[in-house]
Write a structure and sequence with these properties.
The complex is a heterodimer of chains A (about 270) and B (about 280). Chain A is mainly alpha-helical and about 270 residues long. In chain A, about 85% of the residues lie in helices and about 0% in strands. Chain A is built from ten helices and no strands. Chain B has a six-stranded mixed β-sheet with strand order 6-7-8-3-9-10, with helices on both faces. Chain B starts with 9 loop residues before the first strand and ends in a 10-residue tail after the last helix. Classes of the chains: A mainly alpha (about 270), B alpha/beta (about 280). The interface of A and B includes residues 2, 7, 9, 88 and 271 of A.
């Protein structure tokens, strides 16, 4: 356990030294403030929007940005150590491969979480001071969902890192994953619905296959259950299970997504030649 | 040095390692006794680094390896706790500081962080402890790697080509440092290309060629082999052709030595000579 903590601490230290963590936090803070301010101007008012409107606007940007950053960081971790010739040295220490993997995962999730919380926090503090009304719970809920999505995507990135021969290959894989999960998934499902007559059960199964979609539906159900925004999958889920049932199912699916890639990565890493 | 009753520090038994169709190690076996310094010699690609990887349990292999009675296949973490490893190229981030590197590795090894300052002083890097690793010299990085290997005061040291990238003077300094470490009774397996300077440092020589052990001999035994020899001047004839001609007329390898009567040439001849241990020129 000490080895996991030591590796995780080094990951966070490296992230701070590499300055990406600060940049990531700054991007989130600017996004929150910018969306809040511009949203209010579009409505003809002055100053900052309250949390609820800002949260809804932030959602789509977070669903683009957070997976991209988390996937890239995960992909770079083990593969970069291998590229630099450091992996054998790390594994020559009295640690297990599982400890190395968990340490990397914990460190990357901790670093991105610190950056996300700092960014959201800074943006939220400004909004809280200047906005006319406050509904911080939705803002916090979005933060929690982004953190969960970051964990899932870091795990998928690590899996790509373990199976790849180099960092470039790992980054190539995660870019495909990002493109598929964030941009292409909706189009694919629409195609499947019309071509393969995908029923309600099929839609639900398809929804659970994409963690980005899970977070999107989970956020909308709890923030602004508007059927138009929810889309066909979310609407079906809400009608079938209700808000609580849908939230429980989606949260459980997200938890499974957080564990499964790391479990698979650990199994493959244990056998892989370094 | 405590290894537990009846357990040798390193026991390598019939180890074979394949990378696809390439056989990197072909059934090598040796046992290193407590306090011994064994020099592992061989040209590039002979299997020296692969041997280290197998002993560390970071790669799969057929056969068995034990560190002080702990099988590396099933108790790899416990086995590695007893080993300090110095890789051919130090694997440190150039942006780290020497003190940061050692503190991180101390945490990984479960070693006392207070040893970091002691070891920095021992390898003469106290003044450079806050510099970036990328800014210190190759010799300093190698000394830092030695300090890292000594962090948990392990009874066994595996040193993979520790002086390969160093200039002659730095190599001498590093060897002096090794001689000091030897005084502590540590068991050391040391791979190298450079035979010069090994005399008086290594107790035993193992020579690998194409994954096979072609020589395993104690240093004093090699010394004895220097006596009672007839030196033949080959006058330009290739040694291998000459040996082959001698074999053709029934003169066996046990009666042939190549080179002059010194340890370095005797070992060098072993490195150059193709074939298994039975054919090793003596």
């Amino acid at each position: 356990m000490n080895a996991v903590i030591a590796i995780a601490r080094k990951e966070v230290r490296d992230a701070v030294a590499g300055r990406w963590l600060i940049l990531y936090a700054a991007v989130f803070a600017v996004l929150a403030l910018g969306l809040s301010y511009l949203g209010q101007r579009n409505l003809g008012g002055l100053g900052f929007e309250n949390f609820s409107r800002t949260t809804a606007s932030l959602l789509n940007l977070c669903l683009l940005l957070a997976p991209l950053v988390a996937l890239s960081l995960g992909a770079g971790s083990i593969a970069a150590e291998r590229d630099r010739g450091h992996l054998t040295y790390l594994l020559s220490q009295p640690i297990s491969r599982l400890e190395l993997l968990l340490g990397k995962f914990a460190g990357l999730v901790a670093a991105t979480s610190i950056a996300t919380i700092a960014g959201f926090g800074a943006g939220g503090a400004v909004i809280a001071i200047f906005a006319s009304s406050i509904d911080a719970s939705t803002y916090v809920l979005l933060l929690v969902l982004v953190l969960a999505l970051t964990s899932v995507m870091t795990g998928i990135g690590l899996l790509a890192s373990v199976v790849s021969a180099s960092r470039v290959q790992a980054l190539g894989i995660v870019m495909l994953v990002w493109f598929f999960a964030v941009l292409f998934f909706d189009l694919l499902l629409i195609g499947l619905v019309s071509e393969a007559s995908l029923g309600g059960g099929g839609l639900l199964a398809a929804l659970l296959l994409n963690p980005v979609e899970i977070v999107r539906v989970l956020a909308i159900i709890n923030l602004e259950p508007d059927l138009e925004v929810l889309g066909p999958f979310g609407s079906y889920l809400l009608e079938t299970l209700g808000t609580t049932g849908a939230t429980v199912l989606l949260s459980a699916a997200l938890a499974a997504w957080a564990v499964a890639p790391i479990a698979v990565a650990a199994r493959l890493f244990a056998r892989r030649e370094v | 040095m405590v290894f537990g009753t009846g357990h040798a520090p390193v026991v390598v038994s019939d180890v074979t390692k394949r990378y696809g169709r390439l056989e990197a190690l072909a059934g090598i076996s040796f046992t290193i006794e407590p306090g011994q310094i064994v020099a592992l010699l061989g040209p590039n690609g002979s299997g020296k680094t692969t041997t280290f990887k197998c002993i560390l349990g970071v790669t799969g292999f057929d056969g068995s390896i034990e560190i002080a009675g702990r099988p590396v296949k099933t108790q790899g973490k416990d086995a590695r706790r007893l080993v300090g490893y110095l890789p051919q190229t130090p694997a440190f981030d150039p942006g780290d500081t020497p003190i940061g590197v050692l503190q991180f590795l101390a945490d990984l090894k479960g070693a006392d962080r207070r040893r970091v300052d002691l070891l920095l002083e021992r390898v003469n890097l106290t003044d450079e402890r806050l510099m970036k690793v990328g800014e210190i010299s190759g010799g300093m990085r190698q000394r830092l790697a030695l300090a890292a290997a000594l962090l948990s005061d392990p009874p066994v040291l595996l040193l993979d080509e520790p002086t390969a990238s160093l200039d002659t003077e730095t190599r001498k300094q590093f060897r002096k440092l090794l001689a000091e470490v030897r005084q502590e009774g540590k068991t050391i397996l040391l791979s190298t290309h450079f035979i010069e300077g090994l005399q008086g440092l290594a107790d035993r020589f193992i020579v690998l060629e194409q994954g096979r052990m072609v020589l395993d001999m104690a240093a004093d035994e090699l010394e004895k082999k220097k006596g009672n020899r007839v030196v033949v001047d080959l006058n330009g004839t290739a040694p291998s052709a000459f040996l082959s001609a001698l074999r053709d007329i029934g003169v066996g390898p046990e009666r042939i030595a190549v080179g002059e009567a010194n340890l370095e040439d005797l070992l060098a001849s072993a490195l150059d000579f193709p074939g298994g241990s039975e054919e090793t020129p003596r």
